[in-house]
Amino acid sequence: MRKLLRVNLSNGAIKGEDIPQKIATDYVGGRGIGSKYLYDEVPAGTDPLGKQNKLLIGTGLLAGTSAQSLSKWVVVTKSPLTGTIIRSYGGGDFGAWLKWSGIELMIFEGKAAKPSYLHIKDGKYEILDAKDIWGKTVNQTQEYLSKKYGAKARMICVGPAAEKMVRYAGIFSGWRTAARGGTGTVMASKNLKAVVIEADRTNELANQAKFSELLKEQVKGYKAGMGFEPFRDYGTPMGVDFPGFAIGCFPVRNFRSNDLEGWDKLSFMNYAAITQKHSGCYACMLKCGKSHTVAEGPYAGVTSEEGPHYETIWAFSGSTGCTDLGATVMADRMCGELGLDTISTGNSIGFAYELFEKGILTTKNTDGLVLKYGDPEPMLKLIEKIGRREGLGDILAEGVKRAAERIGKGSEEYAMHAKGLEMPGYEPRAMKALGMHFALNNAGANHCYGYASQEMGSPTPRLLDAAADEGKGDVIKYNQDHVAALELVNACVFPANNLELFGLELIADMLVAALGETKFGSADYLWHVGEKVYNLERCFNIRDGFSRKDDTLPRRMYTEPLQGGLRDGEVIRKPDVIIDEYYEARGWDKNGIPTEATLKRLGLNELDRDIAKFRR
Ligand code: SF4
Questions:
Q1: Ligand 1, atom 7: nearest CA belongs to which residue?
Q2: pLDDT for residue 203
Q3: Closest CA to ligand 1's atom 6
Q4: Pocket of ligand 1, candidates 281, 483, 499: which has the most ligand atoms within 8 Å of its Cβ, to mutate?
Q5: Is 576 helix (H, G, I), strand (E, B) or coil?
Q6: 243-246 LR contacts (CB < 8 Å, sep 24+)
């Protein structure tokens, strides 16, 4: 039987449970099992930062093996930013260690009376006092725990931002993070600072010979893949050049333009020039983490481990109109120490810069900071203020949706989010399938849930004209279901989805070889379960009152023409057409509620009792 660990932080009770066979086969694993448990155990109306919310952290069915890029860990919870179900993935080694500990999923409930951490070793579980690490940065916390438990230990933890209830704090393992949606905030709301696992490598595979054969096939596929070498050598900073400025989708000055004078200072080649080392997650030859040390200028000597990645570069340049590469490295380092999601942090600061330009914020509101485009210094000061919830940082720590509600004066026009999640570094008007995915996605503006590579040249299932205003709904669904299927095994979306280095067929074969579970041996089955999980997540949100009214983007996307770049003058002209196409492809009604027939087709009949009343 597959095992989960239930940890009640309120009363200290810890117990192992078998994952029932029906759930294990019907939901496969990873995001699938996590979403199923959250749906069943966290009812509508639950406060994301209250004791009743639960924090689920799971590993993948192939984690800890040599299978490439399949050892990530997933967090599933109700988001304090969006109020929706979210899943967020973290890398590093922790997924492998969790697997070797014999636990597939940890469910944290309640709230500890004082700051605590969980220690796991040899089938023993202890909740320990975290007084020595509470208040410490991510790096200080991990150094302390590594020294205490030695080289065989791996851990996840939160930083000071989570402790201060910044709504977009992440959970960290090394310098990798499950960043989006406030996973770390939920963890800290339970007074849980860290989880430490001491474990030895174990690998019991049903058919080792077959698994080795499949692994060879996977590695061969990686080496033959067109994107493999550039991605390994340069990593995600390549996104600045392509698609960023090449197709005009790099958002500048709070999603107003694609014009950033001197943007070439942020070209991936300049990050490559200061790369110190390449590092990756457990069993991943792509090693997309690049450590950078700034060579010159005011931030000379600053190092950011495993970053900045593309999104972070964008968040601390495009948002504030800065082209200082050193400042992006510095900002990444600061967010890593404070434990912040870089996308939401940078987006929130870009929002503040625009409010300052418009006169809605003045130096009276910013503790004297002059938020001037092109100047990175106030940006760096605001990162610290957000992480510590000081001054304006206390308001921005709420996320742009809530911050706009507090600031008023029309500031909601400048809050760039979908369902409360800050938009990432892709301009919706320049890539409309990706843009409308932000609107439609269950967890708001998260590109990883359904990256539209068809707008950048991928022919599967078909190429899309990025500027077209219709004919995209079915492809948005395709991308979301594909990612959901891959995430049943916690597959990393970079190689699997974006670079197409391996697919569901290989995963299905590996699952059979590893587990001997023949039901998982078909890509069609994984695809079906992926779609089912996506619908289950939708139903979670519907129970809380989400519907078509929430599937939207900031008004700017529909009314203000994009300025500059290849997509100069674009707006999203027909959002309702794309939404209707999408609902039809999904088998949802006009209000975005799955029909009874759709639930039946997906084996989710029992959810009808929860959502029928919301149908039109
Ligand atoms: S591609 Fe990068 S994020 Fe994905 S598993 Fe490999 S090293 Fe980790």
A1: 280
A2: 81
A3: 284
A4: 281
A5: helix
A6: 243/426, 243/431, 243/456, 244/310, 244/314, 244/425, 245/565, 246/566
User: What's the pLDDT at 420?
Assistant: 98
Please state, rounded to an integer, the average pLDDT across all residues of the chain.
97
Q: Which of 166, 559, 186, 136 has the alpha carbon at shortest distance from 348?
A: 166
Q: What is the DSSP letter of 313?
A: H
pLDDT tens digit string along 68-127?
999 999 999 999 999 999 999 999 999 999 999 999 999 999 999 999 999 999 999 999
Q: Cα(386)–Cα(390) distance, rounded to whole angstroms?
A: 6
196 neighbors 155 (Cβ within 8 angstroms): yes
Half-sphere exposure of 429 (CA within 13 A, CB side): 28
Q: Which residues are registered as beta bridge partners of 116?
A: 129, 192
The rounded distance, in Å, linking the Cα atoms of 301 and 128 is: 37
Average pLDDT in the 156-177 region?
98
Q: What are the CA-CA distances from residue 27 to residues 72, 167, 380, 526, 611 (Å)?
A: 18, 29, 43, 9, 20
What does DSSP say about strands 3-8 and 421-422: parallel, antiparallel, or unpaired?
Answer: unpaired
The residue written with tokens 């008004």 in the block is 555
Question: What are the angstrom distances between the C-alpha of 569 and each of 210, 439, 558, 564?
Answer: 54, 21, 11, 8
Contact 435, 428 (CB under 8 A): yes
- Ligand 1 residue neighbourhood (C-beta within 6 Å): 69, 91, 280-281, 284, 286-289, 492, 494-495
Distance (Å, whole) CA 309 – CA 144: 26
Choosing from 284, 489, 500 the residue with most ligand 1 atoms within 8 A of its CB, the one to mutate for a pocket test is: 284
Please tell me the distance from the alpha carbon of residue 236 to that of residue 310, in angstroms, as a whole number. Answer: 5
Largest CA distance in the chain: 68
Which residues pair with residue 125 across a beta bridge?
A: 120
Quote the CA–CA distance of 587 and 407 in Å, as a whole number.
Answer: 40
| C-alpha span between 268 and 565 (Å, rounded) | 19
